[in-house]
Design goal:
Elements: H1 5-29, H2 31-39, E1 62-64, E2 75-80, H3 98-113, E3 120-125, H4 140-164, E4 170-175, H5 177-188, H6 193-198, E5 199-205, E6 232-236, E7 238-240, H7 244-253, E8 255-257, E9 263-265, E10 315-318, E11 321-324, H8 351-372
Parallel strand pairs: 2-3, 2-4, 4-5, 5-6, 7-11
Antiparallel strand pairs: 1-3, 8-9, 10-11
Helix pairs in contact: 4-5
Length: 396
């Protein structure tokens, strides 16, 4: 019987089509797992050779090095940037890797350090940030990668304090991964009352902060009560209500430092939320008309001011999450792509709001200085006392 070649060909093509559709369907529903799979370094941290540590006495270790505040009333702003390296080969970001370096200079700094230019002298360290993959797993290897990144930031901050030698207000900014490291600084360095006195505000953005930390590791600090508050923390994770999976992951899979320097899950813990439009930790609703402006500053040079996009979203804190509307401008929406909801945002939805907020808190802290006075500066020198012979008073 002769073969029906057209029929066979159609059958093969149909079968191939079914297989292709099956593979595409599998890839679509398994894309998060595939994303993680390709980013896994597949090497235990015990045998991993980390990139060389930056030398913070060298200006080359800084995207913006510390500067002494020679101008009167110049606050000091210390910015810890978000993740810029996704993973695949290393657990921690190599300092000379071109793509992460480009993301840092082109995306992270313009969008997240840019708004603070008007607040004071901005300092930004390079550091061996943990890879994005290390935040997608709770393995000990991943925790070790985060700890190494934090040690870099700790050393950078100590050098920043040494070189600036200032008594002026301090602003801390930590975005996404940077938020974890700023939480560490608040615990390990701002237990010093002299430094804490100078803290105008700490901004922990797109990173979860459990409320119970304020009764423990962050005792003495608090979420900002209103826009006039100072020596407090502004923190939020912004999501649209429909992004339930992302909200759940933010609530349950974030890990923060405890009082003993260990990473502990936020699962089951209430989170702090400060509305960046209203400036306070409350559940009040802020309509779009109060939103001062977001910006997509990607690609802008340092010193350039992006065109603000106001009235883009309403905001409201609910159960520790900042609920937002879908922004009206496409420039304030995440780009599509594999793993996009794991990656840091490439725009700042509250660019203008944060810039104004920092200026107000610095002004209010200065007013507190005037009304409350200042602590005496710590002694930086040691006075040696020599033995002195005791001479008795002669008897009359």
């Amino acid at each position: 019987m002769p073969m029906n070649r057209p029929l066979i060909l159609r059958t093969i093509l149909a079968a191939a089509g079914v297989i292709l559709v099956g593979l595409l369907t599998f890839a679509f529903f398994s894309q998060d797992n595939l994303f993680r799979f390709f980013l896994d370094p597949r090497i235990p941290y015990q045998t991993y050779v980390a990139p060389p540590a930056p030398d913070y006495t060298d200006s080359a270790a800084w995207a913006r090095p510390p500067t002494h505040a020679t101008e009167k009333h110049m606050a000091q702003v210390f910015v810890v940037t978000p993740t810029v390296y996704w993973g695949g080969k290393d657990w921690n970001t190599p300092m000379d890797a071109p793509k992460p370096h480009d993301r840092l200079l082109r995306i992270a700094i313009p969008n997240w350090a840019g708004p603070l230019r008007t607040a004071g002298a901005v300092t930004i360290p390079y550091y061996r940030s943990a890879s994005l993959y290390s935040f997608l797993t709770t393995r000990k290897d991943a925790r070790d990668a985060r700890r190494l990144a934090y040690l870099d930031i700790l050393h950078a901050f100590d050098q920043f304090i040494k070189e600036t030698d200032s008594t002026e207000p301090i602003i801390l900014v930590g975005v996404e991964q940077g938020g974890l490291h700023v939480l560490g600084l608040l615990q390990d360095r701002f237990d010093d009352p002299y430094l804490r006195e100078r803290l105008a505000a700490a901004y922990i953005i797109d990173f979860a902060v459990p409320l119970d930390l304020f009764d423990g590791a962050l005792k003495g600090l608090r979420p900002c009560r209103d826009s006039e508050d100072s020596r407090c923390i502004v923190t939020y994770g912004a999501f649209q209500a429909r992004h339930r999976a992302e909200i759940k992951r933010f609530h349950e899979r974030t890990m923060v430092w405890d009082e003993r320097g260990r990473l502990r899950s936020t699962q089951g813990r209430m989170l702090a939320c400060v509305n960046p439009v209203l400036g306070g930790a409350n559940a009040d609703f802020a309509p779009r008309r109060l939103h001062r402006g977001g910006a997509n500053a990607t690609g802008l040079e340092w010193g350039a001011t992006p065109a603000p996009l106001p009235e883009q979203t309403s905001t409201q804190c609910e159960d520790g999450i900042l609920l937002i509307d879908r922004p009206k401008s496409r420039h304030l929406m995440p780009k599509k792509g594999l793993g996009r909801h794991f990656k840091p945002k490439t725009y700042n939805l509250f660019y203008v709001d944060l810039a104004r907020d920092a200026q107000i808190r610095i002004k209010n802290l200065r007013q507190r200085f005037d009304h409350e006075g200042r602590l005496a500066p710590p002694l930086n020198t040691v006075i040696e006392l020599n033995d002195s012979p005791i001479k008795k008073t002669p008897e009359p």
